[in-house]
């Protein structure tokens, strides 16, 4: 069992780091924190240098300033990599973390070597947009755990919830313990920025994987296909019978998808560097 002690950057970002090799950064979803990545840290660390951190407004990281946009969240990642003296990394973003990963790819392309977007949103329908805006209103009025039960039902299969009540309770507590303003600032971005600089996604020139679950109601397979179509050469993976929290519910399955992609991406990048040299 890997037990890690969180550390802080000069700007206050809380992060975990383990393993050696190519750097891989993990960005969690809204309302969660770096602890969601336990299954991936164990699965990836034997081959990669794995870095997981708390987004602004989450976990032990500082709150975002009022009005902070995705640029500010991308800047947080840039500062973390600078602190760790990591010139380039593969960035894996889950849900809201996928929006941050996209923003980082657009604003700091020189620091990106590969991109994975898991269970994230793109081009919501009017109905989907109305639903997430309503959840934002509820969070503003009642706090971060305003719609926790509905969220957990969207995120996990009924079987997993029934078999893992302690873990579900812990995630519910994580949602409830979020700083209200930090959570709301982040959730408002999650609710409104699914088309953030969509017209510029064609400029992303690194190996990219967009993946989601077959049964993910908020980050649908169609969203994954549409997003991947905007990024040159991007791959799409739709995991059978998986819901939103597939990195937690099915870590071995997700890890295998990630490891296959990382191996392929590293080979591709090494080939390119060889040609350039």
Automatic annotation (TrEMBL):
Top-level division of the source organism's lineage: Bacteria
Top-level class of the enzyme under EC nomenclature: hydrolase
Transferase among keywords: no
Enzyme Commission number(s) from the entry: 3.1.1.24
A GO cellular-component term linked to this record: membrane
Single GO term (MF): 3-oxoadipate enol-lactonase activity
Record-linked InterPro entries: AB_hydrolase_1, AB_hydrolase_fold, AB_hydrolase_sf, Epox_hydrolase-like
Domain spans labelled AB hydrolase-1: 23-250
Presence of keyword Repressor: no
Keyword terms, alphabetized: Hydrolase
Protein name: 3-oxoadipate enol-lactonase
